[in-house]
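Dear V.,

Thank you for sending over the compound details. I've combined the ligand you provided, coenzyme A, with the protein sequence from our construct and run the structure prediction for the complex. I'm sharing the raw inputs here so there's no ambiguity about protonation or stereochemistry in the SMILES, which I know was a concern on your side last time.
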Amino acid sequence: MEFAAFSGEKVIGGVAAFCPSPAILELRHIAVLPECQGRGIGTGLVKVLIEAGAERGSGRMLAVARNTSARFFRKLGFNAVPVAAPENPDFSMHGIFFIVMEKHIGKAF
Ligand SMILES: CC(C)(COP(=O)(O)OP(=O)(O)OC[C@H]1O[C@@H](n2cnc3c(N)ncnc32)[C@H](O)[C@@H]1OP(=O)(O)O)[C@@H](O)C(=O)NCCC(=O)NCCS
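Below is the predicted structure of the protein with coenzyme A bound, written out as C-alpha cells.
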C-alpha cells in the first residue's frame, strides 16, 4: 500500500506499507520533504494508511521507527514493542537506531 501527498503536481510526502499477514499492516517508509515538515502532512499520511488498513481488516499496525521519529509515532498513538529491531550500520554510524512500534487500528482512531 502506498500513498503520496501532493502540492499541485509535486510529490511532497509519501508512505509505504505492506501486509505480512491479513491482520497486520507494517509501515516501512514515510518521509515528507524537509521544507514541508511540521504542517501535519506526515500525520495525514499515517491516518490515510490506518483507514485503508482498517478497511481491509487489519487490526494492528507496526512501524519500524527511527529513534529520531519515535515522538512522531507516539503522538499518533504508537507504543514501543519490546522486540529486537533491525540494525543498519549506515544509520547507526549517524546515531540513528530503530524501534519497533505498534498501534491497534480500527474505529477507535
Ligand atoms: C517523520 C516525518 C515523516 C513527520 O512528518 P511531518 O509532516 O513533519 O509530521 P507532522 O507535521 O504531522 O507532525 C506531527 C507531530 O509530530 C512531531 N514530529 C514530526 N516529526 C518529528 C520528528 N522527526 N521528531 C520529533 N517530533 C516530530 C511534530 O512536531 C508534530 O508535533 P506537534 O503537533 O506537537 O507539533 C518527517 O519528519 C520526515 O520525513 N522525517 C525524515 C524521515 C523519517 O524520519 N521518516 C521516519 C522513518 S521511520
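A first observation: The chain has a mean pLDDT of 93.

Warm regards,
I. M.
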